[in-house]
Task: inverse folding
């Protein structure tokens, strides 16, 4: 994050918290957009293998921004619901590119150990992937949305703004605590029987877990005076194993689907698709155990 939290009060009111977090989230998005643009400007041969990481980091930045717009809308009536559509579209397009490259690196060792006849699927070259990523974040509606969010983030401090609520630091803390507790409760509720949920609902749990992490990060960094002690750091550390377990489970599910698609032109892909599908039961149980472990760590907002 490029905007240091120390530039802002330790216990901000609602307007201060929204301005600080939006500015930081936008700076992160812009930084990774610039990185993608810079690579797109060079010859495709020089694009290199870092394109997957660049795309991944841009997606993380967009998810953080979308988390703020969703979870903090009650602090800022100026956050418009229609902002999410162009951000979600760019996120999805980048996700397709990420799946094409990064997933292969995740599942290849598993398939090699199983002596799969096919361990990869067709992926675009690095230069094309970077060009496609740059195009995804050059859409006029996407850029207009970022400009409108920037205008809200730059609303002058010290006087009432129509797009920001007037809420004290104590009220802001209460609001954030409610949002964090709600996400936490939903994740733990579904985590108790994660391995019995349909794949779509498992994916929803993973998305909620990510929103919980990002909102917790924003709350701890931009309102540190509201959460004294070490509980915040302990909670952040406890999230990591759960995120890793659910991330691997999701990656294998997506990779299995990609291999099923590949099997339409290369029958060797059926082995990989079936093998990964069979492993989903194991990874789902691992995810359930990780979420149950998370349940033993109290939320820092309580």
Result:
């Amino acid at each position: 994050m490029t905007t240091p939290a120390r530039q802002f009060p330790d216990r901000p009111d609602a307007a201060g918290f929204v301005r600080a977090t939006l500015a930081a989230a936008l700076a992160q998005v812009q930084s990774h957009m610039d990185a993608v643009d810079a690579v797109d400007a060079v010859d495709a041969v020089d694009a290199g293998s870092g394109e997957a990481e660049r795309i991944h980091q841009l997606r993380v930045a967009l998810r953080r921004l979308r988390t703020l717009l969703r979870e903090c809308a009650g602090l800022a009536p100026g956050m418009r619901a229609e902002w999410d559509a162009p951000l979600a579209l760019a996120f999805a397009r980048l996700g397709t590119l990420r799946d094409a490259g990064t997933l292969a690196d995740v599942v290849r060792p598993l398939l090699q150990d199983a002596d799969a006849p096919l361990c990869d699927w067709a992926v675009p070259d690095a230069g094309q992937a970077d060009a496609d990523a740059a195009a995804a974040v050059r859409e006029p509606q996407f850029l207009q949305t970022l400009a409108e969010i920037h205008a809200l983030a730059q609303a002058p401090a010290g006087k009432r703004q129509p797009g920001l609520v007037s809420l004290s630091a104590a009220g802001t803390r209460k609001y954030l605590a409610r949002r964090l507790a709600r996400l936490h409760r939903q994740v733990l509720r579904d985590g108790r029987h994660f391995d019995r949920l349909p794949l779509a609902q498992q994916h929803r749990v993973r998305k909620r877990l990510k929103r919980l992490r990002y909102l917790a990060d924003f709350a701890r960094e931009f309102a540190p005076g509201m959460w004294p002690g070490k509980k915040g750091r302990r909670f952040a550390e406890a999230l990591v194993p759960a995120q890793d377990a659910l991330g691997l489970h999701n990656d294998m599910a997506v990779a299995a689907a990609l291999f099923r698609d590949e099997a339409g032109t290369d029958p060797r892909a059926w082995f990989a698709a079936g093998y990964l599908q069979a492993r989903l039961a194991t990874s789902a149980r691992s995810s359930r155990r990780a979420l149950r472990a998370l349940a033993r760590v109290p939320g820092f907002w309580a």
